[in-house]
Design brief:
Elements (H helix, E strand, L loop, with lengths): L14 H33 L1 H37 L3 H35 L5 H16 L2 H15 L3 H24 L9 H26 L7 H5 L3 H32 L4 H37 L3 H28 L1 H6 L5 H14 L3 H16 L3 H24 L4 H4 L2 H25 L2 H9 L4
């Protein structure tokens, strides 16, 4: 007879300490991730403003890859964590092994998209020859070599699902450092390497992702005792497990994919003014990641905590986790707002910004950052939808904010002929998002979390 399995720390550790221990490594690794995204663009900007614009035009497709990989990981994470909370260990193993199969399918889809469609995708946004050429080169490389990206995200999610977030941080941070080191070497041709320009930036990116994936695989095999890998189960995925993963994952994928559609449409709107306006939008996205990425790291650490304690029917721990996480998220984003309000010129100078870029970029950073604190609250409320398999609400909120409000309003404001007016679409859209998030949060909380209170009371009553 086997010994009873020890309770996972997500069910017993003090909540504030648990949130910090689960989220801090991911917040740090995502800060490093944000750093190497910014460094990537800083080096590319030294080539030319057109090179920076080319990378910006490739970003919607890159974001789509991240959406598919991360959304699949959300589904794996939620099913695995909940299964562990319910002590259904065969189901948690099925989630891990089926997740690896789905990860390879994701790579195959984007390999084909990059090989056959990268040039066509960039061409829909610009006809300027040098931007088109650089953008096509960059996007082809990151798509066709995306195996590392997809497996890196999956292996990190598996570590996060079982509370081993410190190892997730090691994987992601190592990949980011590799990217930062090789960016200038490959872009500018240092230490005997050929000068590859934007192709070097793409190759440095995929090199870092592949290294991170290998480290993630090794750490899962050696350290993750709550998951048991089986090559046979990977090759023979369970359709019911796929359904369970994507019942959570598909809304998350669609939600994040909407971000790709939004950036694509914003590129189309802004390039009417100038390629400089599009480059400013790209710079904004890189800079805001310094603050959004840590909040997303907090969110990633919060989701398995909520899912586990929902499976274990512990309402008090869910409530405390939500309150504490909301305070942290608001604090992080308030810092971001202050940075964008006080130091926009210094931030833009990192990207070799011309005076024309400064004239467009300073109002952009100050205006858009007014929405940061609101976004923090919405992200934390969205974690409830994902953890409790109600991701459809996150999808509705995201569609409303980005496609029904942000892009149409930006288009209307662009008709004024003033690019500075376009940036006000962001705060307005975030306010609409907050209203929708509050409505859905109250509905999910009342139907899912409140009933757990009776379970807790029954558990506390001593039985004769």
């Amino acid at each position: 007879m086997s010994a009873p399995q020890k309770e996972n720390k997500m069910g017993v550790m003090p909540v504030k300490k648990l949130i910090i221990s689960m989220s801090l490594p991911m917040m740090i690794s995502m800060l490093v991730q944000a750093l190497y995204n910014v460094v990537d663009s800083i080096f590319v900007a030294q080539l030319s403003e057109n090179a920076l614009t080319a990378v910006t035009l490739a970003f919607p497709m890159q974001n789509l890859m991240i959406a598919l990989g991360s959304g699949t990981g959300v589904g794996i994470n939620a099913l695995l964590s909940r299964s562990l909370g319910e002590k259904r260990f065969d189901r948690s193993d099925a989630a891990a092994n089926t997740g690896l199969f789905l990860t390879f399918l994701n790579f195959a889809a984007f390999f084909l998209a990059g090989f056959f469609g990268a040039g066509a995708f960039i061409r829909t946004q610009t006809s300027q020859p040098d931007i088109l050429s650089m953008g096509t080169t960059y996007l082809t490389i990151v798509n066709c070599c995306s195996l590392g990206l997809f497996f890196q995200m999956t292996f990190e999610r598996l570590l996060q699902s079982t509370g081993l977030t410190i190892y997730s941080m090691i994987s992601q941070a190592t990949g980011a450092v590799i990217n930062i080191i090789f960016d200038p070497i490959m872009i500018f041709g240092l230490f005997g390497f050929p000068r590859l320009g934007v192709a070097g930036a793409a190759l440095a990116t995929v090199l870092g992702q592949c290294v991170a994936a290998l480290i993630g695989l090794t750490l899962n095999l050696k350290k993750n005792r709550e998951i048991h890998f089986s090559f046979g189960r990977v090759l023979h995925p369970e359709m019911e497990t796929i359904r369970r993963i994507y019942s959570v994952g598909v809304p998350s994928i669609l939600m994040m994919s909407i971000g790709s559609v939004m950036t694509y449409l914003m590129n189309r709107i802004l390039i009417i003014f100038s390629s400089t306006a599009t480059a400013v939008f790209g710079v904004y996205f890189k800079l805001q990641s310094f603050f959004f990425m840590p909040v997303f790291g907090l969110n990633n650490g919060l989701i398995p905590v909520l899912a586990y304690n929902y499976g274990a029917a512990r309402k008090n721990r869910i409530d405390e986790a939500l309150r504490f996480s909301a305070c942290l998220a608001v604090g992080i984003m308030a810092t971001g707002t202050l940075a964008f309000q006080l130091f926009p010129r210094r931030l833009l100078q990192m990207f070799n910004a011309s005076e024309d870029m400064m004239g467009i970029g300073i109002p952009a950073l100050r205006t858009i950052s007014l929405s940061f604190v609101i976004a923090a609250v919405c992200i934390v409320m969205g974690s409830v939808f994902q953890a409790f398999s109600q991701s459809i609400y996150s999808l509705i909120v995201s569609v409303s904010r980005q496609l029904l409000v942000l892009c149409p309003l930006a288009w209307l404001l662009a008709r004024t002929g003033q690019v500075a007016a376009v940036w006000w679409a962001f705060p307005v859209a975030e306010l609409i998002s907050l209203i929708a998030s509050v409505i859905f949060f109250r509905r999910v909380y009342r139907s899912t979390v409140v009933p757990l209170e009776n379970v807790e009371k029954n558990r506390e009553i001593p039985h004769p």
